[in-house]
Amino acid sequence: MNNELKQKYEQLKKIIKKLDSTIVAFSGGIDSTLLLKVAYDVLGEKVVAVTADSPSLPRRELEETKRIAQHIGAKHLIINTEEANNKNYLNNPSNRCYYCKTELYSKLMEISKQLGIKNIL
Per the count of CB atoms within 10 A, which of 37, 40, 59, 101 is most buried? Predict the structure, then answer.
């Protein structure tokens, strides 16, 4: 890892440490996997990975999130989201991700309240 990447990595760890605890919206992609790994390395059991399951998520991708979270050691919750019930999402506009993310983050806020974790990444 070059010096610039090391500095960015250390900065990310400092930012996460300040959170004390967090939920990571975990898709299993490279970005959320890196974030989950760093958060778990810094905060340990105070990190919860949450994956949204819906009809649009291929089963192999859901299984991959389970495998990755287990490998990292993080607690992993799978929640059902209902963006497929939203006509705006179903119309498949160019901003359909907005409707998906709105659904996801509203569910993550509920989990945040239930678990007493204020931070969502």
Answer: 40
Q: Pick the closest to residue 95 from 79, 81, 83 (CA basis).
A: 83
Give the C-alpha separation, 20 to 91, whole Å: 40
pTM score: 0.89
Average pLDDT per consecutive 10 residues, the chain (121 residues; last block may be shorter): 94 97 97 98 98 89 97 97 69 70 89 96 97
Of the candidates 11, 9, 25, 13, the residue with the CA atom closest to the CA atom of residue 121:
25
